[in-house]
Amino acid sequence: MSGIHPGTPWPLGSSLTPRGVNFSVAAPAADRIELLIFERASTPTPERVIELDTRRHRSGDYWHVELEGVGEGCCYAYRVFGPLAPGGHGFQPAKVLVDPAARAISGWDVYDRVLATGPTPNAHACLKAVVTEREPFDFQRHPRPRHSWQRSVIYELHVGGFTGRDDSGVAPEQRGTYLGLIDKLPYLKELGITAIELLPVFCFDPADAPLGRDNVWGYSPLSWFTPHHGYGCGDDPLQLRHQVRQLVAACHDANIEVLLDVVYNHTTEGTRLGPTLSWRGFADRTYYHQTSSGEYLDVSGCGNSIAANQPISTQLILESMRCWALELGVDGFRFDLGIALSRGNQLKPLDQPPLFRAIEADPQLSDLKLVSEPWDCGGLYRLEDFPAQRIGTWNGHFRDGLRRFWKGDEHSTWTLAQRFKGSPDLYNYKPVALGRSVNLITAHDGFTLADLVAYNRKHNLANGEDNRDGENHNNSWNHGVEGPTTDPQVLALRRRQQRNLLSSLLLARGVPMLLMGDEVGRSQGGNNNSWCQDSPLSWMVWNDDHCDLELKLFLQRLLKLRQALPQLFNPLVPPPETSRKQPQTPTDLWRQWHGVELSKPDWAAWSRTTATSMHMGSRGALLWMGFNAYNEPLNFELPVPASPWMQVIDTSLPAGEDLPAQAVPYDGVDIPLASRSLVLLLAREVASGLAL
C-alpha cells in the first residue's frame, strides 16, 4: 500500500523519520495487530486502520511499520489479536490500547476507565498515544549539578500539592504544575536542600481509586514514558515534555538535582478484573507475574506485579529510564518497592536480577543517583544484600530506631547509636559507602513530623475506608494530648522533640531525606495515608501565620552546619571506635561512646541516654553530642576538648537560642541535659568561623 513501509523494530514506540513516523511495539504471542490513526484525540473512531502482517511488519517479538504523511501530534493506538491465555484473559481486540512506550497521551476528555474492562468495544472512550519529538536534554546549557552523596540532602515533595494553595504565590494557572514548582525553587534553595524527589510524575489514572475518591499520589502508572497530564499547563499533550524540561533546567540552574519516585513494579491495570489499557493487551503473560493457570501474583499490593526478569520488560524499563534521564534531564530515580523487580519466575528472589544488572552495565545511566525501597508487599526485605551495588536503599530501620528512642522505648539506645553512625549492624559491620543508606524520619506514606509528635494513632476517616488504610505501627507519641492542644507544656515538649528528631537525622552518617512541609510544621490532622487527598489536608503550607518559622530557621541552620563539617557528621569512611584514648597520627579521626560517665555507655534495655565524641589523634575531642530521652534531666561528663568547647545546639532552649547563628562558649567538665533534649558541642577550632 502506498505510504506504508515495513519500518524497523528500533526505536520502541513512535519516532519521527524523514518520510513520516516509525511505529514499533512488542507483542510476542499476538497473531495480528492493527495500528489505528485518529484524526483527533476525541474522535470516536479511527481515521485509518493499518493492518500489520507477520511477513513484512514483524521482527522477532516486535511489530513495526513506517507510515508516510503523519508526524508530530499524530494520535494513534492499537488493537491486538491473539489467543486467550489460561484463565480466560489475554488478548482482547475489542479494547483500544495505548503504546507502552508512548511519550505523550491524549483523549482524557472522552476516556472512561470502566469501559476499558469487560468485552465491549471502547474506541469512542479510549486514550490515544501521541507522536512526539525525542530531542535530547540540553546538558550543555543546564548541566547536572552532580552533588556528591556526602553533601546530598533530599527533599521529597508532591508536584500538585506543593503549590496547590491559593496563597502559594504561584499564578492560578500554574498552581500544582511543573511550571509552578519553578517559582518555589528560591524557597528550596534557601532551605539548603540539594535534591528534590518528586512523587510519581509518570502518567497515571486519577480514576484508579475507590468510588468517590481520586488517585492523587500516582503510585499506579498508566505509562512509564509520559509525564502526568494533571501537572501540565494547558491541554496540549506535546507541551508536557517541554514543561518538564523547563523544570529540570531551572533546577539544574539552581544547583538542585531532580530525582523521580518511579513505579516499575506494577501498573494501573490492577487485577484480572481491571481495565485493559496497555501492557495487558500486548503481552499479558510477558509483562505480569502469573501462575501456570493465569492467576496474577501480587507483591505490590495493587493487584499485579511486573515480571522485570522478562527481557521485554527489562528493555521497556531501561528505555523509560533513558527517556527521562537523557531526553528530559532528570538526575536519578527512587524505585518504589524496588526489590520486587528482583523477583524471577514464580516470584523467586534472584541474586543477579536481569534488570539491575542491565542498569548497572548501561553507560547512559551510569551517572545517575539510584535509590530503592528494599522491601515489597510479599515480605521480601533486602538491605545489606540488596542485589545491586550501585543502588542505595531507604533505611526504614533508621526511621523506626530514632522514633523509638525519642519516644523513650526500651531497647532503643544501642539502636540509636547504630543508626547515628551509619547502621553498620545492618551491613555486617562492614564500612558502608555513602549513598547505600538513605536515612529518613518521615515520608509521604506516614505521619508528617508535626503529626508524629501529636498523635498516638492514625486518623484516616477522610479517606473513606473506615480508618482501615494506612500504617498502624507508627512509633508516634502525642505527648499527653491527642491532636491539637493549647497546653503550653505539651506544645513545648512537641517542639523540642521535632528538633531532636531533625538533629538526629541531619547529623547522622548517611544521606538524609526530608518530607515536604516538615520544616514549617505541616500537619495532616493525623492522616498518615493521604494518597487520595487533593486538598489543603495534603498540600504544602505557605501562609506565615500557619507556618512554624522558628522550626524552619532551626532546620536551615542545621543544614548549614551539616554542609560546613561533612568530615565530622558524614565522613566518607566511618571513623574507628575505641573505649579509651589511643595515641594516633595527628590527623586520624576516631569515635568514643559514653553514658553520663565518660567511656561508659549504657546499652541496657532501660537506658534512655547516650553520648558520642569525635577525636583527632591524641589532641582531644573535636565534637561531643549528648542524647537524653529520659523523663528527667541528667548531668554528663565531658571529654577534654582539643580547644575550648563551644555550644552549638541545645534543643531545650528557646527558639533562636537552641541553634544560634554563632556558637556560644561553654566552660565546664560536665554539662546538664534537660529531659528529652539533645546538645552538641564543638571545639573552638572547629566552630570558629561557622556562621549559621
How do the strands and helices of this protein lay out in sequence?
Layout: E1 4-5, E2 13-16, E3 20-26, E4 32-38, E5 48-52, E6 58-59, E7 62-68, E8 75-81, E9 84-85, E10 89-90, E11 105-106, E12 128-130, E13 154-157, H1 159-162, H2 178-182, H3 185-191, E14 195-198, H4 237-253, E15 257-262, H5 279-287, H6 311-327, E16 332-335, H7 354-361, E17 369-372, E18 392-395, H8 396-407, H9 413-420, E19 437-440, H10 449-452, H11 488-506, E20 511-515, H12 549-564, H13 566-569, E21 589-594, E22 609-616, E23 621-628, E24 634-637, E25 645-650, E26 664-665, E27 670-673, E28 677-683, H14 684-687
Parallel strand pairs: 13-14, 13-20, 14-15, 15-16, 16-17, 17-18, 18-19, 19-20
Antiparallel strand pairs: 1-7, 2-3, 3-7, 4-5, 4-8, 6-7, 8-12, 9-10, 11-12, 21-22, 22-23, 23-28, 24-27, 25-26, 25-28
Helix pairs in contact: 6-7, 8-9, 11-12
Structure description:
The protein is of the alpha/beta class and 692 residues long. Helices cover 19% and strands 19% of the residues. It is built from 14 helices and 28 strands. The strands form 6 sheets. An 8-stranded parallel barrel has the order 13-14-15-16-17-18-19-20. A 6-stranded antiparallel beta sheet has the order 21-22-23-28-25-26. Strands 1, 2, 3, 6 and 7 form a 5-stranded antiparallel beta sheet that branches. The longest helix has 19 residues, at 488-506. The N and C termini lie far apart (72 Å). The relative contact order is 0.08.
Would you report the number of β strands?
Answer: 28
User: Structural class of the secondary elements?
Assistant: alpha/beta
Shape: elongated
- The largest sheet has its strands arranged as 13-14-15-16-17-18-19-20
Radius of gyration: 27 Å
What is the helical fraction, as a range of percent? 10-25%
Number of helical elements: 14
**What proportion strand?**
15-25%
* Largest pleated sheet: 8 strands, parallel, barrel
How far the N terminus sits from the C terminus, by CA atoms, comes to 72 Å
Low-confidence stretches: none
Mean pLDDT across residues: 95
